[in-house]
Amino acid sequence: MPDILLTCNPGTEDIVLDEAREKIGARPVEIREKHGRLIVETSMDNTLLVEKIYEMRTIHYAGILLSSGKITSKKQGLEEIRKLVRDAAPDHFMTEYSAYAVRSVREGKHDFTSMDISRVVGDEIGKILENTGIKPYVRLGSPTTLFRADLIEDNFYLTLSLTGDQSRHIRGLRLFDHPAALKSSLAAVMLRIAGYRDKERLIDPMCGSGTIAIEASLTTVEGDIHCNDKSPRHIKSARRNALAAGVSQRITFTVSDAIELLSKNGEYDVIVSNPPYGIRLGDPRTVRQLYERFAEVLQPSLSLDGRAVIITTEHRTLEKASSRVGLKIMEKRVVRHGDLWVKILVLTRD
Ligand SMILES: C[S@@+](CC[C@H](N)C(=O)[O-])C[C@H]1O[C@@H](n2cnc3c(N)ncnc32)[C@H](O)[C@@H]1O
């Protein structure tokens, strides 16, 4: 029964576990909350497992755990890594035609580099393979078998990658990027928190390059999806990104002020959005005004059991404004978005 290492946006581990339960029948083994890492076990057959992992939308990386343990940050940590690799049996996953590579991810302070880790792990795997008589070769570009060594502070994990080199939050072709684009994996998390399902009416009133609306249209088959931004340039980008993702027909695009649009556009079941943060807006008064007016129009724009899920650093302003206008705060969670810790707020009508 293999253990699987999953990585994700820090702060979203419980949502990822939920998706892993659904897709691969996962049971939790070790959840490192706010660290973006979880180890789960599953009894799913390896071939089906790869297929199902690729259906997951909230993760960044998945790999079969071959070995793990604590190691010191001193130079001798490299020798401890060697010992852990010897427990790993990498030959189980290789034939003489395999071309393999090792990648390393390192977080924290250590007396050695990621390159040192890759070298030591690659060297040790080479020795194990020599003893088994299989002679696969190292190919750093486009390997058929990819090992990943993660050293996070003093925790070492060696995994066989199921998702390759590219993070799974990169969904495919993005023709245009927004300077403050949301990761698709975080958009997927917000949609799961909203409990978004088929046939529901959804809007992202400040959609930038369209990440949330595109993610929504990739996870349902029916229901209106509305993508609005006040910037014609961003809407052009969102439209092109949707075209590249093959979902432009599902989405209605408009260029409008979000407040004006929401105040006259009827009710939505789900409003998911990533409004601009203060650091980008500059003047704190502008920030306060935008969030106060946003809360005012959110309340009447939600259907009776409607849910608004908003990601922002301006949560205090939004929380205050929400309680003033009769919006109930159902959940607050801290997640990491790029270099920032931000909050996701879930609001409903009171
Ligand atoms: C943080 S960005 C959204 C990024 C988006 N989630 C993505 O992944 O590309 C915020 C967006 O809100 C838009 N915006 C700001 N104020 C607005 C308003 N009053 N009405 C509509 N859009 C607005 C900005 O043009 C910007 O594109």
Number of helices: 11
User: What oligomeric state is this?
Assistant: single chain
Number of structural units classed as domains: 2
How many beta strands in the DSSP annotation?
15
Q: Helix content range of the residues, please?
A: 25-40%
Hetero groups: S-adenosylmethionine
Task: Specify the CATH architecture of the largest domain.
Answer: 3-Layer(aba) Sandwich
Key phrases:
15 strands; VC0802-like; 7-stranded mixed beta sheet; 350 residues; binds S-adenosylmethionine; 8-stranded mixed beta sheet; Rossmann fold
Short description:
Helix content is 35%, strand content 30%. It is of the alpha/beta class.
Structural summary, described in words:
With 350 residues, the chain is an alpha/beta fold. The protein has 2 domains: 3-161, VC0802-like (2-Layer Sandwich); 184-349, 3-Layer(aba) Sandwich (Rossmann fold), CATH 3.40.50. It is built from 11 helices and 15 strands. The chain has helices at residues 13-24, 46-53, 77-86, 114-132, 184-194, 211-219, 232-245, 258-264, 278-281, 284-301, 315-324; strands at 3-8, 27-32, 37-41, 59-70, 99-107, 137-138, 145-152, 155-161, 202-204, 225-229, 251-255, 268-273, 302-312, 327-337, 340-349. Strand 2 (27-32) and strand 3 form a beta hairpin. Helix 5 packs across helix 6 (211-219) and helix 10 packs across helix 11 (315-324). The relative contact order is 0.11. S-adenosylmethionine (SAM) is lined by residues 178, 180-182, 206-209, 211-212, 229-231, 234, 257-259, 274-276.
